[in-house]
Amino acid sequence: MQPILKDFLEKWVYPTGFTGPGVEFRLRQTERCLPLWDKLVTQAIQAAENDRQSGNNEYKAIRARAGYAAEGPFMSLKQMSTQILSVEIDEQPQYIDLQRMRARQIWDEVKHGQLHADVLLRGGFIQREEELMDDPRANTQPKLSYFGMTAMFPHIHPLARAGQHYYNESMACLGIAATLSVIKDDLIRHQLHSQSAEEMMHFMEGKYQIDAYALTPEEQKPIEEVFDFLLRPWAPEPSRALGGSQ
Ligand SMILES: [Fe+2]
Q1: In the chain, which ranges are E strands?
Q2: pLDDT of residue 146 exceeding 80
Q3: For residue 60, how far is its CA from the centre of ligand 1 (angstroms)?
């Protein structure tokens, strides 16, 4: 197992303040995630090594444009509003703390988009953020497990998003840690360190949702189905912002 994954598991996955069926369900799903998390770290380290050895700065722009596409204001507002909408008005008393965490994530994701724009501006790849509006590379992202899944959340179940939080946001945490272990460039390090604690919060949100709320087979089923979708063989590659090709 990659040491970065081992450290993540010991610090964030296994310690919990909860007991009971939610935790047991989460640990069963965790077992399914482990091989793919490990593969993700290996791939992210390799991608970072390739970029470090490329001998030019273009990789910074490629990653930042892809990050802007996935986390810029347009994508963030679309994605985050769907996760808010997955809780009906009459369900809000039950899920109000989830709604508060999800509202916070809207801010986080838009900030991440700005961090990517900042790399492009400070790196001299663009002069003004508005230029990104004309660049398809900064406005399209092909990962089904990200946008396709996101668009479905309002139709599935208020807790379905927990599967995305637990699996995809852990990938962000692990991919960032793997990249930071290789790339020493100040612009990239500033961007990743500014983002990483928030990605961790999003992962912990998924952990909390499952441990605290996924207590019955009826509540666990929609989350497990999200894991079934996300754990397909094509899913584990790092995002393009972290060196992947998708
Ligand atoms: Fe983000």
Answers
A1: none
A2: no
A3: 17
